[in-house]
Every structure is written in structure tokens, then in C-alpha cells.
Amino acid sequence: MSAPEDSLAGEAGPDVRLPIETDRLLLRPHRTSDLDDLAQFRGDPEVVRYVPWPVRDRAATEETLQVKLTQTELVAHGQWLVLAVEVRSTGTVIGEVLLKWAADRQGEVGFALGRDHQGQGYAAEAATAMLRLGFDELGFHRISAVCIEENVASARLLARLGMRQEARLVDNVFFKGAWATQLVFAMLEDEWRAPR
To answer: What is the rounded CA–CA span in Å between residue 35 and residue 67?
Structure first.
């Protein structure tokens, strides 16, 4: 059931109940103890190839982790909720999943997983949980996602989640030293609720 339309309007912002559990994952606020796991995947050139941040060493990862420790709620438009993706059976953090409160009843989803954990359905599981949070708990009307065109795996995943490609923005962004084409995907709340 959808949250009331005014659930995102209020000074406190939407109420996000954490952690979020899925069959295999725990999506939770970051902890300082996540540093080793985060440094491993944030330092991998193959993982960061299609994401907006550069390869980071341990010190740089620790610096960004300090910011992530505060990204645990949505209180204003433009703010990102950034959660660690932890495998419940091992306690290992294998990546991050994000939900942005983009505008009135609109969100944006994102994800990044370590190379050793790609291709196992974890990204789909985490992203689905964020879509559920956005549509079912926060009352979003529309959730979008953006990826670089060369990131074929992410584009395929977004389509598999039921998001439709709405745009192909040619040379839209200067990305890691070169102009890149972005693909914009989106889903509406009615599409989320429709039988699949």
C-alpha cells in the first residue's frame, strides 16, 4: 500500500526504517568497521569504471566513509540515502545501494558491488529492496536510474527490474576524462504495482 501523498512533505522528511532485510542481504547504515570491505571494492578499477568516483586507496575510502556515516536519512530534496550491502550469512560488505530523494515524490536509485559478488543476483536483490522502499514505504511516484551507456550489465539489470529506458543522452557528461553517453531509466508507481 502506498504512503499518503503528503508523506514526503514535512520538515522531518520521510521515515526510513533501517536496516532492510532481503533473502540474502542486510541493507544498513555504514559503520566504521566497514572500512576494509569498502577499500577492497572501491580500490578496484573494474568496479569504479562506470561510477562517478575514482579508484580510492584506503585513506581516501576512510575519508568518504566519514560522509557515508551521515547519509542515513532523507530530510531534504537532493539528499542520498547510502546503505552498505552486507551478505547476511558472512557479515561481509560487498557494495553499496543508494536512494535519492530527488524531488516531490521522485527518487533515483543506484548501486555498486564488488567484482567478486557481481553476477550472483545481489545487485538486483538490493535494488529491488530500494524500489520497494521508495514506492511502498515512502510513497514515491517515480524512480529513475542513470548509467553510462557502456555499462551494459547495469542497463540490462535496470531493464530486468522493470524500469524502462526513457532517454539516451549523447555525450551528455564529461566522465573520467572523456565525453560519455548516459542512459536514463525510470519506473512509475503504477508500473511497480502492476503484475509482472
So the answer is: 13
Sign of CA dihedral 34, 31, 70, 20: positive
- Determine the Cα–Cα distance for residues 19 and 31; give it in Å rounded to an integer: 12
Grid coordinates belonging to 28: 544498513
CB 143 within 8 A of CB 186: yes
* CA atoms of 84 and 154, how far apart (whole Å): 18
Rounded to two decimals, the pTM is 0.91
Within 13 Å and on the Cβ side, how many CA atoms surround 110?
A: 20
> Distance between CA atoms of 83 and 68, rounded to whole angstroms?
8
Nearest to 27 by CA among 110, 84, 91: 84
For residue 107, the SS3 value is strand
For residue 41, the surrounding DSSP H or E stretch is: helix 35-42
C-alpha cell at 88: 547476511
pLDDT tens column, 122-133:
999 999 999 999
